[in-house]
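USER: If only I could read backbone structure tokens as easily as an amino acid sequence. It would mean a lot if you studied the pair and described how this chain folds. Here is the record:
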Amino acid sequence: MPISRRAIVLAFGFLLACAPAARCLLPAADANKPPVDDISSLLAESVQKHKLPGMSAAIVENGHITAIGATGVRRRGYKEPFTSDDLVHIGSDTKSMTATLIAILVEEGRLRWDSTPAEVLAGAVKKIDPAWKRVTLEELLTHRGGVRPNPAMITILGALALSPREQRLRVCRAVLSEPPEHEPGKDYSYSNTGYAIAGAMAEAVANDSWENLLLSRVCKPLGMEHVGFGAPGAPPAKSKKGTASSSAIPITQPWGTCQTAKPSGLGRRPTMLRRSGRLAACI
């Protein structure tokens, strides 16, 4: 993987705007490019201090990687080391990519910033509450569309067996049948659901999946040659007792973390689905 393009998929948990020179100096890929420092030992200090499974990071200056490193393991309790070649799930960083794709379609005249879900998705979603005629694409992308943060769990579970494109339409049908949760265009409310709707709007006008559109219209022109969708790697094998075994098969890529929240009166619950159940929601 070319080092200038590999940086796109590195872990971004720690932003190193400035770092001291590391002990080991890696050879530069090109004599005209600055040398590349190995900062793995520096990252190891953060992994130990914050009790992280592992991490990788890079410093980019003037379009070139000047420092890169990785440390720790791909999954807590497993032995496979975290490397700087690993693919990392970038989560909501994808929103900026989706917004860029939308901007391209706006420039082409396929969408407008004031296009509405009611207008664009009328052919694919039969029941749309009239209130969505007032919600613009720009409001969806800036989290001011009055859209709920995430789809209801019953909607997510009912969509897991569908294709990614059908999953997004399933979300749209469930959400757009009811009015927005609050007044559109006013309060800021971070919404993964809003981006799922925006992704479905892009699919409707371009007659292609969000995944294909993102690859062909954004990633390929930028030289991003190693891009995937969903959680990286394969799940581990199960032991005879039905639990994951650290010795069964290697962990081929780093696993994401499952954050928890404690809403009042509801106890602790995961805010993300288990890795085996993923929703392709353009988020």
The CA atoms of residues 203 and 210 lie 6 Å apart.
